[in-house]
Write a structure and sequence with these properties.
Blueprint (H helix, E strand, L loop, with lengths): L1 H68 L7 E7 L5 H18 L10 H14 L6 H31 L4 E6 L8 E9 L11 H15 L12 E9 L8 E2 L10 E9 L19 E5 L4 E2 L4
Parallel strand pairs: 1-6, 3-6
Antiparallel strand pairs: 2-3, 2-4, 4-7, 4-8, 5-7
Helix pairs in contact: 2-4, 2-5, 3-4
Protein name: MAD2L1-binding protein
Pfam families: p31comet (PF06581)
Organism: Callorhinchus milii (Ghost shark)
Length: about 300
Amino acid sequence: GERPGVETGERPGVETGERPGVETGERPGVETGERSGAESGDTAKVQEGNEEPERESNGLECREAAEPVCPGKRSEAEVSVLFAGPVSRDGCCRLVCEIVKHVLYQRQQMPLPYEQLPFFTRRANEAVDGGLMPRSRRNEQSDRKKYQRALSDLDEVFQNLEAVFGLTVVPRVHILLGGSVVRPKELYEVNMERVALGHREKSLETLSCIRKLFHTLFVEDVLNELRSLPLMNMLLLVEGHRDSGIQWFRPKLNYRVPERCKKLVISLSCSPGSCSPTGEQTNHSDSSDYIWFQAPIIIKGFYA
């Protein structure tokens, strides 16, 4: 009675009650309940959380991989310039020319503003001709050629750009810096799709429009936020009607707006309540009759 109780009651109780309780109750509670719970909980957390770290890591990899591929989407900026009345075609042309000059100088592609280049060229000519700097005569001559070349190229571009505005409505103008037409480093778009065109006598004064433009550019200070770049080439493209008779600018039928670059859009528009379109509007960029034309001259940046 006792031995069986010991053998079957106590020992089994120890073997089946306590030890199993230890082996299956406590230790399993530790090993399977706590540890397995911790392990299963951890594995569950890992399994549940594996998706997020993978997504995060994949997201980081995608972001890192996307940076050199499409940096332009994250660095795109826009500046809106609102005029109080209609603007003439000549006024739009002057605004585009001033933006070209401003971009070249602010992006350090010219040592001086465009208006100061003729004066500096004359001073360089006087210094060389007068023998004031004999040791640096070669440098002076080289600088003089650079200034003269830049002035002549820009003047030719501006003259033919004026002819384009006289022949067709120009919804957009693209200024490309660096790289190629397909993949430039920087793109500056002058968007005139919301400009109401008017006759010269019924339009705003061009000087007032230029002051308004530069006031907005200086307040926004977008050009100084972009990183400085070395000397680059500048390409100019205009959008116009295919049957307008443009000759100097060359048609660029396969041109597509670059996306893999830094982009700044300067959007020009007129106040809806203070200007009335005169039948000529610039919002024809979606029409198949409007194509891109590229200037045959490449403006090369230079240092002093």
